[in-house]
Here is the input.
Amino acid sequence: MENSPLLNELGRRLRDARARAGLPVVELARASGISRRHIIEAEAGRANLTVTTLHALAEALSVRAGDLIDADGAYLRAGRIALLGLRGAGKSSVGRELALTLEVPFVELDQRVEELANMSLAEIFDLHGVAGFRRMEREALEAVLSKSGSLVLATGGSLVRAPETFERLRRTCHTVWLRARAEEHYKRVVAQGDVRPMRGHPEALTELKSLLAERESDYARCEMTVNTSDRSVAAVVLELTARFAAI
Here is the structure.
């Protein structure tokens, strides 16, 4: 079973603090009164420390107990990458390649919504409306978060219009806006053979530009923005892996 992200982060901070203090495990055990084995387990992310144990270790390391825990919840985002953007941004193609590079699962949230509802997205909107879709989208996201550690998640283009779900995503994943020009979105969707948004809409590109402008401030709240216009999937993945390696 995969270690808890919280305990993994605690273990990392404990190892770093011990390295800064220049204390071997055996000396930290002697100074704190905590067994050597328990410290090793804690540093490996396998020990759920009590408050008194945490305090004893912090005191022996001359740090605050609060320095050893992640009160801001950044540990939740460790290893989780969520890709956002309008249709045609490259979320699926970039997401799959990025997941292969990082050797983590790739998940499409819209697909999980369809599996949850046992119907297509079109049927969900027809039968349950936007409110019903939003409820299922949030439920599907919670299911993914509860069962997954590290992963790359491709989200629906309109998720940013669901404030609570978007905030939940921002707290639990590194969020990346795959940004592209409206013309690029249009070209990619057509190239995929999906002309439904354009059929019977001579002003489709104009509408797409308007939609992109309308959501730009929401997408800009993502942790990162990566331009995908006129760039290969490999180039975008290379940039993403380099930027995440620096975090």
User: Anything to note?
Assistant: The radius of gyration is 22 Å. Residues 79-245 form a domain with the Rossmann fold fold (CATH 3.40.50.300).
